[in-house]
Amino acid sequence: MRGSARLVAWCLVAALLALPIVGVLNGWFAANRWPVTQLTVQGEFKHVGMEQIRAAVLPRLGKGFFALNLDNVQQAVAALPWVESVEARKRWPDTLQLRVIERQPFARWNEKQLISRQGKVFDAPVNAADTATLPDLQGPDDRLAEVVSFYADVGKAFAGTHLSINGVALTARGSWSVTTTSGARIVIGDRDLAGDRLRRFLDVYPQMMAGHDQGFVYADLRYANGFAVRWPQQAPITTKAATTRRS
Prior knowledge:
The structure is a single chain. Among the domains are: about 70 residues, membrane protein fhac (Ubiquitin-like (UB roll)), CATH 3.10.20.310; about 100 residues, Rossmann fold, CATH 3.40.50.11690. The chain is about 30% helix and about 25% strand. It contains five helices and twelve strands. Strand 11 and strand 12 form a beta hairpin. The longest helix is centred in the first third of the chain and has 24 residues. The protein is elongated. The relative contact order is 0.07.
């Protein structure tokens, strides 16, 4: 009995000694004694604002320095639209340090979202000045990687020509098309035939453009032995009749 009583007593003493430490670490009490009063942020930003970061972090600082959960802080900041990744650290006695990497947009996706250089789709305004000139990629969401790959392949195919590609589209039926920086649309069709069709088109492109300074507006490569091209309509020529008065 004495041994059991002694064991219980030691357990109570240990609990009483551990309770303050556990309480501080969990923010149950004494949070005001060790508050987080400093926030430092490292990173180069064009779209992420300090006010956004502060608003994400502030609700998680109330339990004090020891109870501050770095994982929760990182998740909150990482949820901001333009944040690619974030690292959070604590520095004694009152500082939270953040290292934030901003997403670098690679292309627009379906006219509503952006694709980062790491291949992640994220929601952000697509009509900003620095995103308006990005390539315009379109297709089913589950075929994003394929669309990006096709854009890279087409860019290589057109390298060294006078045509520059700034858009790729994949329809639900699996038909591919590209757009040029001049606004022309080139329908390619099946990807398995894309290589041969593009080579056939580009081989005769210089001769085809002879005498057409304005360029073409549409090309359909889905023909067995050739392709169809539509040229811009010429504006009608208007003339003014001259009248003379006899004095």
